[in-house]
């Protein structure tokens, strides 16, 4: 007998595609588009799995999921949603969903999850308590962030060690806070320590504590970060900056679950969850002898990568509005931002990632003259100043131009047009190369309007995207 799947989806096109994909997998699929019809079907028939959208014709599919659990307590549920936020992912997890798929999703992955759900129904004994979704720290609906949200939900019901990687300013500590805040250890302490901010000779004392008299200046006993985090989460930021001797002691602590204060004799048991983070390439550090390979494998149980802001530009609008709300809460003038201004922000390279965006939004909230931040305010703040590297290259064509002019005979003619024809295209390409393909900055460098630059690029067949720096 074929396994039976109930599909609750109010978009007919999506329902058709999913139904056909599951039927190809050998399932019998019953589809409906409302909560009311869903409830009728689960009372009348037994299903092996249910797939449900959240926003349905007659309400929120997750808010009413309790009825499904009461009627069919062993039936696994897979949640589908176009509301691709961490809040949605956590709500799906709290509803004891077997899996959560943000739209758009891969049909092969969905079919695989359905097969796994039918083969193994998850236990409800490990379901976490409800959480305050309003205080969730991570923001963004991009595909890249959806992957992060899904990974976070998968580590909430366990204490596996997590290694978060990503460039500086991407929000690695926010991921650690989310894992702590939403997991079973939320009532315990969250302790963060930045390895790069502590002198190497004091790092072991900072992590493990010390006894009185352990070294010069140790006038009293000190409790280290491990003990402070007992029962909670210890966030080890910039783990790649940790010196070799401290790496050895950390590895021993992770293996045994016990620490010894500097200068002490007694071993102390600690119960902490470890979340580590780095912006370094740890495999490269291992190859150069800068990081212990065994410690890397001990930390890299669940790897999680945070994308740079340039890879999730579609999140810049929602992030900007969120930071404007933060700025208002901290006493800065209340501002809104227009869509053209968001487009201008999206054209920037954001080497400092989300942290840099937050700082820029706070400056705009303080300095923009009008209540609505427009594109001119953004461009004046971000693109007026030319970087030292760009300034150094701004006159690069002067020697070649001077030599070309000297080679021409001093007679009346078409010198201007000849010079334009000879130098305009390579000059525009040079400006794009210097600015990493950023048209706003290139127009500032050249001293022309951005629209003028775009027209010239089109007329000359120059593709600006070819000059964008790839991370």
Write the layout of secondary structure elements.
Elements: E1 4-8, H1 12-24, E2 28-32, H2 35-44, E3 49-53, E4 55-56, E5 59-60, H3 65-71, E6 77-81, H4 86-94, E7 99-102, H5 107-119, H6 143-154, E8 162-165, H7 172-182, E9 190-194, H8 200-208, H9 225-228, E10 233-237, H10 244-256, E11 258-260, E12 267-269, E13 273-278, H11 282-287, H12 293-299, E14 302-305, H13 316-329, E15 336-337, H14 339-346, H15 353-367, E16 372-373, H16 375-383, H17 388-393, H18 398-406, H19 415-434, H20 439-446, H21 450-460
Parallel strand pairs: 1-2, 1-3, 3-6, 6-7, 8-13, 8-14, 9-10, 10-13, 15-16
Antiparallel strand pairs: 4-5, 11-12
Helix pairs in contact: 4-6, 13-15, 14-16, 19-20, 20-21
Describe the protein in words:
This protein has helices spanning 12-24, 35-44, 65-71, 86-94, 107-119, 143-154, 172-182, 200-208, 225-228, 244-256, 282-287, 293-299, 316-329, 339-346, 353-367, 375-383, 388-393, 398-406, 415-434, 439-446, 450-460; strands at 4-8, 28-32, 49-53, 55-56, 59-60, 77-81, 99-102, 162-165, 190-194, 233-237, 258-260, 267-269, 273-278, 302-305, 336-337, 372-373. Helix 4 (86-94) packs parallel to helix 6, helix 14 runs parallel beside helix 16 (375-383) and helix 19 crosses helix 20. Strand 4 (55-56) and strand 5 form a beta hairpin. The strands form five sheets. The chain has a five-stranded parallel sheet with strand order 2-1-3-6-7, with helices on both faces. Strands 9-10-13-8-14 form a five-stranded parallel sheet. Helices cover 45% and strands 13% of the residues. The longest helix has 20 residues, at 415-434. It is an alpha/beta fold. It contains 21 helices and 16 strands. It folds into four domains: 4-135, 3-Layer(aba) Sandwich (Rossmann fold), CATH 3.40.50.2300; 155-305, P-loop containing nucleotide triphosphate hydrolases (Rossmann fold); 311-383, Helicase, Ruva Protein, domain 3 (Orthogonal Bundle), CATH 1.10.8.60; 388-467, Homeodomain-like (Arc Repressor Mutant, subunit A, Orthogonal Bundle), CATH 1.10.10.60.
């Amino acid at each position: 007998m074929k396994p039976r799947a109930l599909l609750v989806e109010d978009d007919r096109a999506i329902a058709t595609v999913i139904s056909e994909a599951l039927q190809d997998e050998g399932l019998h699929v019953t589809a409906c588009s409302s909560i009311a019809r869903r409830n009728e079907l689960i009372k009348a028939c037994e299903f092996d799995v249910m797939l449900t959208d959240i926003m349905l014709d007659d309400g929120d599919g997750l808010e009413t999921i309790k009825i499904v659990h009461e009627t069919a307590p062993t039936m696994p549920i897979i949640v589908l949603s176009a509301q691709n936020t961490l809040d949605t992912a956590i709500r799906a997890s709290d509803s004891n969903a077997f899996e959560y798929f943000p739209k758009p999703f891969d049909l092969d992955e969905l079919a695989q999850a359905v097969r796994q759900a039918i083969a193994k129904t998850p236990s409800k004994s490990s379901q976490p308590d409800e959480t305050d979704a309003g205080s969730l720290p991570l923001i963004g609906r991009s595909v890249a962030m959806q992957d992060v949200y899904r990974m976070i939900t998968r580590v909430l019901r366990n204490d596996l060690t997590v290694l978060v990687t990503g460039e500086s300013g991407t929000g690695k500590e926010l991921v650690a806070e989310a894992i702590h805040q939403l997991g079973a250890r939320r009532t315990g302490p969250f302790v963060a320590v930045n390895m790069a901010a502590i002198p190497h000779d004091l790092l072991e004392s900072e992590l493990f504590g010390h006894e009185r008299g352990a070294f010069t200046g140790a006038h009293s006993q000190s409790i280290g970060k491990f003990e402070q985090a007992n029962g909670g989460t210890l966030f080890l930021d910039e783990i790649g900056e940790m010196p070799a001797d401290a790496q050895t002691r950390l590895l021993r602590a992770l293996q045994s679950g016990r620490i010894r204060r500097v200068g002490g004799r007694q071993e102390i048991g600690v119960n902490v969850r470890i979340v580590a983070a780095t912006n370094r390439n740890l495999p490269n550090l291992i190859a150069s002898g800068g990081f212990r390979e065994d410690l890397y494998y001990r930390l890299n149980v669940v790897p999680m990568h945070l994308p740079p802001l340039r890879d999730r530009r579609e999140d810049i609008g929602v992030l900007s509005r969120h930071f404007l709300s933060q700025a208002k809460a901290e006493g800065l003038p209340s501002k809104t931002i227009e869509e053209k201004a968001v487009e201008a922000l999206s054209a920037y390279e954001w080497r400092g990632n989300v942290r840099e965006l937050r700082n820029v939004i706070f400056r705009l909230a303080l300095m923009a003259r009008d209540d609505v931040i427009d594109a001119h305010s953004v461009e004046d703040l971000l693109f007026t100043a030319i970087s030292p590297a760009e300034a150094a290259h701004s006159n690069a064509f002067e020697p070649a131009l001077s030599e070309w002019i000297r080679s021409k005979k001093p007679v009346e003619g078409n010198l201007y047009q000849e010079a334009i024809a000879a130098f305009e295209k390579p000059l525009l390409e040079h400006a794009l190369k210097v600015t990493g393909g950023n048209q706003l900055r290139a127009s500032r460098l050249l001293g022309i309007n951005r629209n003028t630059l775009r027209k010239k690029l089109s007329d000359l067949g120059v593709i600006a995207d070819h000059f964008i720096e790839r991370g």
